[in-house]
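Milestone M4 deliverable, item 7.
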Amino acid sequence: MPEVVIVASAFGADVIRRDGHEAWLKVAARSGATAFEVRRELFASEARASLPALRGLGEAIGAHGMWSVYSTPAALYTATGELDDVALRLALEEADALGARFAKLQLGGFGRGTDGAKIAACLAGSTARLVVENGQLREGGLVAQFVGLFDALQREGYADVLGMTFDIGNWQWPDEMPLDAARQLAGHVEYIHCKAVSGDGARRFAAAPAADDPVCTEVLRRLPRDVPRGIEFPFDPSRLAAEAAHYVAWLAAA
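Output delivered:
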C-alpha cells in the first residue's frame, strides 16, 4: 500500500501557525500516517524556521515514527525564466536541517532553458530529493511547462536531477485537466498531493474528495502506485483526529 503523508495545513493553517507543527505530530502518527509535510509558510516566526529549530522539529517527527517532507512556496524559476539558485540552495539547506526526504518547491516561470548542470551543482551534498509542484497560477501550473521541463532535462542529460509533486486539485485553478496531466507526466511523479476542489473561477477551495470522486479515482489509477500520497485538504475542525485516521486509511487504499 502507498505511504500516506499528512500535510500540516490539513489541520488548519491558522492552527499550525498558532500551535506549531510539533503540536500535531502525535495526532498524525496515531492516524497511521507514515510521514508529515512541514510547510515553510506556516511558521509563525523566522525563529521557528531557523536551522536549529528545523533540526529539533525533524527529530520530533522521527521520534513519532514518521519521515518528513519540506515544502516551501519558493519557486525554482523566477518570473523571467531564470533559475533561482539562491532560493534552491536555501530550500535544500532547510530541508536537510529538517532531515526531509523531499524538498518541494513551486516550478515558477520556467521557459525553455533548464540549467540542469546548475541544479545538479546546487544538489551536491544534499540528502533531500528535489521535487517541483504544479501550482495554482498559470505560471508554474500548466501541463506544457512540465512537459517542456522534463523534455529539456532529458536532452541535457539530467533527466534524474529532480522529480515532480503532482497536485491533483491545483491543475483546476489554471483550467488544466488533471487526467490529461496524469497521462503526460506520470513517469516523472514521485509524490502526489490529493485534494478535490469546490467552487468556480478564482473562488475555488481545497476540499476532501468524496469516496467515489471521479477525478481523484481516475488520476490515482494513472499515477505510480508506489509513490507517497499526501492529504492536502482540510479536516473537519470538530473531529480532527477522527478525520485524519479516516482519510489516511482511505487514501492508502484508493
